[in-house]
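Need residues for this backbone.
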C-alpha cells in the first residue's frame, strides 16, 4: 500500500507547485494580474467588434455596388442599338423626306430612340455630351485631329460615336475628332461665339 501512495503524492505535489507558481502571492498582485487579463480581453473584444463592423460595411458596400453596376454588361449590349437608331435617323435629313410614310417611319424610329434613352436614364446610364467640350481623356477617345477648325486646340469638334457612363463609371468613351489648332486658346468667361 505504501507503493500506491507514493506515485499519487508526487502528482499532488506537482499540482500544488504549479498553483503556487501561477497564483500571485498577495491580493494586490492578484488584482493587478486580473486587471491585466481584463484589459487584454477588452482589447481583443474591441478589435473583434471593429473587424466585424468593417466586414459588415465592406459587404454592404459590395452589395450596393453590385446593385448599382450589375446592368453594365446588359447596357453595353444595348449601346449598339442606340447607335443604330441614331444612324437611321441621321441617314435621311429632314429636307429629303418626300412622303408621309417616310416621315411616319422616322418619327417612329425617333420615338423608339427617345424611349430607349429614357430607359437608360432611369437606370443611371447617361450619354456623354462631347461636342464643343474640352477633350478629356477620362471620357473621350480621340480618333483624329482636324486642323483649321476655328476652334481652340483640344476642343471636340466631331463625335463619331457617343460615350456613356453608368452612374459614375465610364461604360464606353466617346470616339471624337479634336481640333488641332485654329482660334487661340483663351481662358475667358466661358462664352463661345462659334457654337
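Answer:
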Amino acid at each position: 500500500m505504501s507503493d500506491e501512495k507514493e506515485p499519487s503524492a508526487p502528482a499532488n505535489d506537482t499540482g500544488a507547485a504549479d498553483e503556487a507558481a501561477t497564483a500571485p502571492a498577495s491580493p494586490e498582485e492578484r488584482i493587478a494580474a486580473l486587471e491585466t487579463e481584463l484589459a487584454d480581453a477588452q482589447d481583443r473584444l474591441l478589435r473583434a467588434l471593429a473587424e466585424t463592423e468593417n466586414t459588415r460595411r465592406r459587404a454592404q458596400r459590395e452589395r450596393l455596388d453590385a446593385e448599382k453596376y450589375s446592368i453594365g454588361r446588359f447596357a453595353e449590349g444595348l449601346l449598339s442599338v442606340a447607335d443604330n437608331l441614331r444612324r437611321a435617323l441621321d441617314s435621311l435629313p429632314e429636307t429629303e423626306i418626300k412622303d408621309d410614310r417616310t416621315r411616319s417611319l422616322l418619327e417612329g424610329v425617333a420615338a423608339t430612340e427617345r424611349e430607349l434613352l429614357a430607359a437608360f436614364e432611369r437606370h443611371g446610364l447617361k450619354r456623354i455630351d462631347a461636342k464643343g467640350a474640352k477633350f478629356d481623356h477620362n471620357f473621350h477617345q480621340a480618333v483624329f485631329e482636324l486642323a483649321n477648325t476655328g476652334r481652340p486646340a483640344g476642343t471636340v469638334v466631331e463625335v463619331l460615336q457617343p460615350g456613356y457612363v453608368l452612374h459614375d463609371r465610364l461604360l464606353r468613351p466617346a470616339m471624337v475628332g479634336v481640333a488641332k489648332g485654329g482660334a487661340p486658346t483663351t481662358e475667358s468667361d466661358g462664352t463661345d461665339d462659334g457654337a
